[in-house]
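Handoff note, outgoing to incoming analyst
You'll be picking up this chain. Sequence as last confirmed:
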Amino acid sequence: MADERVPEAVERNGASRRGGGPTRASAAVVFVASLAAAVGLIAGAGPTLSLVVAVAHAAVFAASLWLVDRDRWRGAAAAAAGVLALGVGASFAVAVGYTFLDLLAAAYPVPEVSQIRARGLRIVSATAVVLGGTLALVGGFATVSGRLRSETVWSYAKLAVETFVVPLTVAALMLLTALLARLGGASEAPVFAPLAEGAGGAVGAVVAPVPGRTHLLTFALLVGAASLAVARGVDALPVAELSTPRTDDRVEATADAVGRGARRALLVTTFALPVTLIEVVLAPSDLRSLVPPGVYGLLAAVTASHGLRALLLATALVAGGTAAAVWLLGRLARADAADAVVALTPFLGGGAVVALAVALHGVVLPPTLSFVADALPGQFETAFARQSGAVVEFYGSLPVVTTLAAVLVGMTAVLSLALALVTSTGALPESAPGPALAAAGVFVAAAFATGAGVGAPLVLGGIVASFVVWDAGEYGATLAREVGPTADTFAPESVHVGATLAVGVGGAVSAAAVHRIAANATIADATTVPFALAVVVAGLLLLVAALR
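Most recent structure output, in case you need it:
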């Protein structure tokens, strides 16, 4: 009995759901090393604000994954994660975008043409450093929370997309409202009046066509739609549950007869539909000359009858609505109440994002525009201030802020979908996805750090940290699978990480020494080429040994 209860306890504690994550000691090493390396590299390449916002982005993203993966209070947790999607997108945009804008403003205008390439390279390199450091921070925080798994990331991506739908729809309606109000006058109902007018015109064209001629195609489509809706509605109705023992046979017989009649009408209409296309090819006068006048008059009276068309349209709407309502009730009856609430909470989160935009649009928009304008170079600042002011004046502050909120939530959806694809395709190993992401981010940041003006010690330290992060995470995941994630593995992990760190530091010192010697030598020296060749061969041998 004790052995049978162990897997259940492990499942409740979340160990098995973490997919073999690293031990606590290894997770701590991954977090500290990735945090230290990312902070050092971002601070050396970009502004302080980008560093602070990047750390906040990683913390909010990890918290969102933790909320999505909760078993208790799933509805409230999913709604909170939906609201945090706005913060995830905003923090990522500020962390990476502000670096680009700040360095762009500092680099331009360029006094000499020869400096354009160098300054452009610095801007691109610094932006890549901040991007890689942000990914490293996400991986480090996610390693501590233990929630960076393929299924969790896919769940969060789905939640972000569903949350994005609400502000996107509201923003589109607001922008359309403002646009139509400008074009049609402020006294008109800008959205609902044109929509109502268009809907009324469409219904009028279906119910009340032009008299005196045939309308075979539209009439056949109406008959087919009504027949299909009636057949589906009768099939969906719970006839056996609604009838009594005394009326059971009669009700079922009537329902079967109605269903058979509707299906036969649908079949006849389907075969007759190609014939009605003759109305598209021939003009009404040519069609009238092909059939006897009495037959044409009867077809015109039947197919253009306002009452008959209205009856068919009403039948299609009522029967279709009945089928949809019965299907929805059946789904709700079969589904768990908690699952239904969780399915609706992303849309509530999107509504909360819209509510935030409505409440804070007057407070948030002016400083945001000023912040972006101040980060741009002189001429760009003037153009941005003029264009943004014109846009706000034309549409209004609320539609603009709602659109920006929708864009930020959409950015979160794109980021989470990209991460979900990466985790699903095996680019991040299932044993230690968090450490792998952290190591890759640190390595990318270190690789671009030199072009951003970061010193050699930080660059070499970042490269060493990337290998330490990956090795510690992978080794900790292996130990966790063998002895459990809560076992006391501090001693062997300390030895393993210490050895990895010693090898990395030794390699970094050797690289610095080689760089110093090579910088003082010239290609004309007799010892330069053999020395370089020996170093390359030794590096290849060490790389092969490390991979083994």
